[in-house]
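Let us practice reading a record.
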Amino acid sequence: MFERLLIVAAFTFATAMSSLSAQAQDTPGDVFTDCDTCPQMVVIPPGEFTMGSERGEFVLNETRPETPVHQRTIRYAFAAGKTEVSNAQFAEFVAATGYRPSTACTKWRGEVVMFGGDWTDPDYGRPPTPNEPVVCVSWHDAKAYTLWLSGKTGERYRLLSEAEWEYVARDGTQSTWSWGEESGYACKTGNVFDRKAARTDYAKKHSSWKPVNCDDGFERVAPVGSFPANGFGLQDLGGNVWEWNEDCSLWLYDDEDVNEQPNQVSGHCDRRSVKGGSWFSMISRHRPAFRGRDPEDLASHIFGFRVARDLTQADR
């Protein structure tokens, strides 16, 4: 893993001085890109919100609390990817650097099993398309992409913190889901485990949870940006694929840590935050408060990521 990051670091130094960068505007909702093939970024304003819930869930023999419920402050404007990172964008990174992403992708087949695929073959029964979100990438792979993108553009790209992610996913609401309290409205806002997905052979064999009583138009993964943007101008936050966050996940929130900064550790982190649910997830896990907590070297056919970018003082 360290060897892979060294490859990326060497490339970033070699390209940083020659890359072009577009300046972000200071208006919330502004959309910009730092290069022709870079992710579209949306300016997110500062704000406050209530993070967590009293609910929590029991997942894979582990209780995942969402407490204590507490106020969080996003102190600075930042930019977030309008959509999840696509296969085409990740392919450019791999081609430019020679980086070798995970080849140990896992899939749910009544239990988590390794099926021998990677991001180029996530076991869809067909090749993934360039405009679908990249999957079968670990947290390390996602971080390596942000390092390369930082070097390519001369700007600081990173993953969203858990607080930033929940802030934009809640979209100014405190309801169970960002769209309200009725799960059946999910298909209007994202790609979820719906009636169409439940009819596939894969779902019939390996899912024990009920689909949402609606149809979003997709059996499995959807191209990025297939659903309407939320109030912040972001798409795909709920569903399609899970999104890696920066944080080393705490078992319980530290209610004295009330800003947007991620929880960091030196060295190995046992579990990283992952949020948002996927096209194959039970609908309760699409709640903005739900806390995915997974090993940082895990690669899954339903795990991808979205990038964030710091804004300079002049950008704010």
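A brief commentary: The mean pLDDT is 91.
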